[in-house]
Amino acid sequence: MVHTHRIATTVLAGLLSIGAALTCPRIHAQDASSGDDSYAAPSSNAKKRASRNDAYSPPPDKRTYLQPLGTPSGGDDDMWSRPSNGSGTSEAGQSFRSNPSTAVMRDAIPPAVDKGDLAPVMSNDGSGLPYELWGGMDVNALEKLISTIEIPPRSPALHDLWKKLITSPSGSASSDNFTALRLEALYRSGLARDAAAEFARQPTGNNPLLVSLEARNELAAGHADKACELVSRSATLKGSIPARLKGQVILMAGYCSEVQGDKAAAGLAADMAREEGVETSPGLQALDAFSIGAKPRYAAVKQISLLDYRIAERVGGLPHKLVLEKGEPALLVALATDHSTPVDLGLPATEAAARLNALTPEMLAGIYRVNAAKVPPDDLLNGRGPKGVARRAALFKAAEDEQTPMRKARLIRAFLDDLKHEGLGMIGAKMISPAAAHLQPAPEISWFAETGVEIGLATGRFDIARNWIQIADQGGGPGLGHWRALIDIADPNEPDRGRSFSALENYAANGRFPPVALYRLTTVMEALDYLVPIPLWDAANKVPQPTSGYLPETGVLTELQVASKKQEFGHTVLLVMKALGPNGAADANLIALGDSIRALKRAGLEADARRLGLEALLPTWPRTEMN
Predict the structure, then answer these.
(1) Are both 508 and 522 inside the same structural domain?
(2) Is residue 159 part of a domain?
(3) For the segment 42-77, what is each residue's pLDDT rounded down to a tens digit?
(4) Is residue 230 part of a domain?
(5) Cβ distance 584 to 154 under 8 Å?
(6) d(CA 423, CA 619)
(7) Residue 355 CA to chain centroid, in angstroms?
(8) Are residues 541 and 553 in the same domain?
(9) Cβ distance 576 to 596 under 8 Å?
């Protein structure tokens, strides 16, 4: 153990001493004094103050063993899995026991969706991508801009663009620093699987920055042994890592000490992390508590990181409600896809991650499907049976399985109503779309037509939306003509562009559009170069123009206009994310919304500009009384 402690002391001391020698926010890792690069806990030689707190004994572990998920190694198995030590125990020495009655099963999560093409304007290098992805930006400018935006973006349209952007290779931006920036962006977006695939394609070699990022990614995957090995290795390599990441590496070293049961070494890591400027966090407070055998007392924090959760987990864990409210995307996805997460945390975590666009609709559907309780459909439709996320999972499975058109339509409607209340309306429509596709539009279920139109719009199945409108128009009621106008706005391949707006004029004249919705409509139409009908302008001008909503700081919209005119793809997408703010198109100021749609269209991304317009309009679009 003496030799082991010496190695670990070098891990922490090497990281700290080099940072003090530099004035810039980057540090250089020193060579370790030993060639052994396996992880060992920090030395216990440092003196710690005695605590008056009584020793804390955590409650019995109630974690359940669940089906392992996809591997982050990029192998043939797309499911995460823990490395087996051949004994049926985890790296922390805890045994995993199967408990099907409480387990959150995630083995049905489908593989990642292919990225596909980003835009119709293609470069001539055969990459299938538009022009130069990162034209007009160097790594420093890119890093600065990414640090100012909310990721992952809350807008589904922008999230798809963002994911394609950071997972697409770029020949002119292939340096280690650029790779590290992409990996950091993937991690912050909750896309640890995609980051793992990047590590598999491009090994980290002897770059301490990339090795440190890989260590954090392995921790996200639940591979503590591998993460600790990489933490130890990073300290033996020469190179530079950002100061913020250096603090995280020290905390990871403290976590590894915690796993090995070395209290003094964990306390030393906490002290060194503070000296490096790491702010108070649940992870830091948990290390302090572990080092003196006390029960941790957590201060209020803005966000809980995955590393915070892993460290606190060793001393009793954090309140589930707090984790769901404050958890970063990487943590929520890890909980949703970790076979050992308790059911009362795992299922709600899936919805919290999906709400941040960190979990795809397909993945959420897979988790719902295999965890749904079998409840009689009539009980669900009458409000009986499970509540909360369990009810939504049961509704989803019942709607998929139901064969009777009338009851299937009612179950789909009930499912979507529940998800809309949870802020998951667009995601819910994408989840239930395959089940809804089995419903043939027919007069006897014409009351479902408007819901069918919404599902078609949310999923880009404009043909399905048109079929439901046709059925509604045959019913002799008010019809759904105003939805044709929204299809015109959303569909990049609309054959009769601009011919469906007469219904909007009637709705506006009859006061069916709330003032805010009417102004958003005219803003989107004008940004997409429609000739806005005069009656719509007249109706809008009867009330003051709304000035609420997120508006970026001075200069952002001007920079966005310049970047889009130059067709700087990546620059434009990032500036649109910054211009719209943390909640996307739904809460953006009208000026920012219009300029963002124009910029995407100008940069050759008209289909995405139209999707953004749809997101801005759909929540407040007038619904009929029949629906």
Answers:
(1) yes
(2) yes
(3) 444 444 343 333 333 333 333 332 333 333 333 333
(4) yes
(5) yes
(6) 11
(7) 8
(8) yes
(9) yes
Q: What is the pTM of this model?
A: 0.77
Q: Are residue 599 and residue 609 in the same domain, yes or no?
A: yes
Environment class of 3 (CB within 10 Å of its CB; exposed 0-12, middle 13-18, buried 19+): exposed
Q: Do residues 142 and 190 both lie within one domain?
A: no
Length of the chain: 627
More confident residue, 117 or 470: 470
- Element holding 27 (H helix, E strand): strand 26-28
- Residue type at 177? N
Last residue of a domain, one of 251, 274, 295: 295
What are the tens digits of pLDDT across the range 412-457? 999 999 999 999 999 999 999 999 999 999 999 999 999 999 999 9
Contacts of 529 (CB under 8 A, 6+ apart): 601
| 285 assigned to some structural domain | yes
Q: What does the alpha-carbon distance between residue 9 and residue 16 come to, in Å, rounded to a whole number? A: 11
The values of phi and psi at residue 149, to 5°, are -115, 155
- Residue 139, C-beta contacts closer than 8 angstroms, at least 6 positions apart: 173, 175, 177, 178, 181
Return the structure tokens found at 483. Answer: 């939805």
Do residues 616 and 550 both lie within one domain? yes
Mapped to the 3 state alphabet, what secondary structure does 222-265 carry? CCHHHHHHHHHHHCCCCCEEEHHHHHHHHHHHHHHHHHHCCHHH
The CATH number of the domain holding residue 245 is: 1.25.40
CA gap 441, 170 in Å, rounded: 45
Which residues lie below 8 Å from residue 366, measured CB to CB, with a gap of 6+? 106, 108, 109, 110
DSSP state of 448: G
Domain ranges, residue 288: 1-46+172-295
206 shares a domain with 185: yes
Q: What is the C-alpha separation between 237 and 390, in angstroms, rounded?
A: 49
> Both tokens of residue 145?
């801009």
Please give the angle made by the CA atoms of 313, 306 and 291, to the nearest 5 degrees. Answer: 40
Predicted local confidence at residue 448, as pLDDT:
94
pLDDT at 205: 83
The reply to whether 28 and 163 lie within a common domain is no
Q: Which residues have C-beta within 8 Å of that of residue 196, sequence separation ≥ 6?
A: 71, 72, 73, 74, 217, 221
DSSP annotation of 60 reads P
